[in-house]
């Protein structure tokens, strides 16, 4: 512990908490049990007069800081007092003492190297609330980093500390940042000593990135001038590394595979907010902590509201899902194209169905069509003749009926006297081809014989009686 000395009347120094180029923080105590944190600024004020530029700037900024506590906020440290030390004439700001570790300590062993999603969302909400509260009263913090955000072990809240940089003039701020600032958390414009509301938004994005990935996007290798310049240029020119890839590498080995898989499901709306905060162009970031907090609320509500699938913060999720589905469709289409052509197969429960390949079916249809065409040609050429010849021979009666006596006589059954049946055909029927005429005659004679046998059964008996049976041997 450093030597105890009096900062100002009634405020006792209890030892240094943190020292640096932007000032030192001491643990202070008023008479009694009240413990506070005192921020000493590095630029001395020689006279407490409005003629002194440094004193005038300090007074103006302190007036702004007083507005921060006009409305209490659980995520913003309470500013109790301000003044100038009795020895050294250094300006100081007295703040509420927050008992608990800061984020920088919570990312070191024995703690896990990354925060859980639940804790990241909690901190994102509370830190955005702190920024919104400050920006409403036109106070720019200017020095948001891991060790300026503390976890209050008594309330469970994350609290934004150390408004010392906001109380400095532009020249003081520019000098302090170049030589002693936490350059890993600084926005590109801070390298020129500039500070806007969007500057705090950029540093906010760096903190969320660190909690997700387990490290800042551009780590500082050492505190040398070369390393600081490299980080400064990286913030100005280089693309931010993939935060999810770094998170996968830094997940604790002690976590189960199931927990690792779950902790890789960082909400898309949260990643979108981080991405917008880290834009190098000031105009592309959220305009202030107020707009940042509104975006955070909209993102968290949109993730729970299933009735609004077109929520802006869920656009990336929908696009990725659409790409995945399109990939599946393409995959199935390619597999379908590789499959052989299906064969026509009868259903197994239909016994009357016939299996026929496509090739055989086509040949059968070609032969059937050819046979149909051939039949049509033949019938067109010879159809009329065949029809008239067959009809006349089969169904037309002869002009002279046969003699019944002659039919009943068995002797004259095969004599030439039956020839009158074969009368001459009319002239129009004499053009029938010989083969057709012979066929008709044969059919007609068979019909007449069958009729005679049926009408005169005596014919069969006389034939048997007159048959010569002398040569038969039994």
Automatic annotation (TrEMBL):
Q: Which GO terms describe its molecular function?
A: ATP binding; protein serine/threonine kinase activity
Which residue intervals are annotated with compositional bias (Polar residues) in the record? Answer: 406-420
Identify the keywords attached in UniProt to this record, alphabetized.
ATP-binding, Kinase, Membrane, Nucleotide-binding, Serine/threonine-protein kinase, Transferase, Transmembrane, Transmembrane helix
List the Gene3D superfamilies: Phosphorylase Kinase, domain 1, Transferase(Phosphotransferase) domain 1
TM regions (residue ranges)? 360-379
Classification via Pfam families: Pkinase
| Statement: the UniProt record of this protein carries the keyword Repeat | no
The residue ranges of the Protein kinase domain are 11-297
Per the record, which residues fall in region Disordered?
A: 398-474
Highest rank taxon of the organism: Bacteria
Q: What is the protein's given name?
A: Serine/threonine protein kinase
Origin organism is: Mucilaginibacter oryzae
């Amino acid at each position: 512990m450093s030597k105890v000395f009096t900062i100002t009347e009634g405020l006792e120094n209890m030892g240094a908490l943190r020292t640096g180029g932007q000032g030192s923080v001491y643990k202070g105590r008023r008479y009694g049990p009240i413990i506070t944190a005192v921020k000493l600024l590095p630029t001395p004020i020689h006279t407490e007069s409005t003629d002194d530029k440094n004193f005038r700037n300090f007074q103006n900024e302190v007036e702004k800081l007083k507005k921060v506590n006009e409305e209490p906020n659980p995520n913003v440290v309470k500013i109790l007092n301000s003044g100038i030390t009795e020895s050294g004439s250094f300006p100081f700001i007295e703040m509420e003492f927050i008992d608990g570790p800061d984020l920088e300590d919570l990312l070191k062993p024995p703690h896990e190297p990354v925060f859980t999603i639940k804790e990241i969302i909690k901190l994102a909400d509370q830190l955005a609330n702190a920024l919104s509260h400050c920006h409403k009263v036109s106070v720019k913090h200017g020095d948001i980093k891991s060790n300026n955000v503390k976890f209050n072990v008594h309330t469970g809240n994350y609290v934004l500390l150390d408004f010392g940089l906001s109380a400095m003039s532009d020249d003081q701020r520019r000098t302090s940042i170049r030589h002693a600032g936490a350059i890993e958390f600084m926005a590109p414009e801070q390298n020129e000593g500039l500070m806007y509301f969007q500057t705090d938004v950029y540093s906010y994005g760096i903190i969320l990135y660190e909690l997700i990935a387990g490290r800042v996007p551009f780590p500082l290798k050492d505190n040398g001038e070369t390393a600081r310049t490299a980080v400064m240029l990286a913030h100005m020119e280089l693309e931010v590394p993939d935060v999810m890839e770094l998170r996968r590498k830094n997940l604790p080995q002690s976590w189960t595979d199931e927990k690792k898989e779950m902790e890789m499901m960082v909400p898309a709306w949260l990643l979108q907010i981080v991405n917008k905060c880290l834009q190098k162009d000031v105009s592309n970031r959220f305009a202030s902590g107020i707009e940042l907090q509104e975006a955070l609320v909209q993102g968290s509500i949109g993730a729970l509201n299933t009735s609004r699938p077109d929520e802006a913060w869920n656009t990336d999720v929908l696009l990725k899902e659409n790409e995945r589905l399109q990939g599946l469709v393409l995959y199935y289409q390619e597999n379908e194209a590789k499959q052989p052509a299906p064969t026509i197969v009868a259903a197994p429960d239909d016994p009357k169905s016939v299996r026929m390949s496509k090739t055989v079916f086509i040949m059968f249809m070609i032969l059937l069509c050819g046979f149909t065409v051939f039949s049509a040609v033949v019938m067109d050429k010879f159809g009329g003749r065949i029809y008239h010849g067959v009809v006349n021979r089969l169904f037309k009666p002869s002009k002279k009926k046969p003699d019944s006596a002659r039919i009943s006589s068995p002797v004259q059954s095969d004599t030439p006297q039956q020839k009158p049946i074969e009368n001459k055909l009319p002239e129009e029927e004499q053009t029938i081809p010989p083969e057709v005429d012979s066929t008709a005659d044969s059919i007609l004679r068979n019909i007449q014989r069958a009729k005679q046998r049926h009408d005169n059964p005596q014919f069969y008996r006389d034939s048997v009686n007159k048959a010569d049976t002398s040569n038969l041997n039994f």
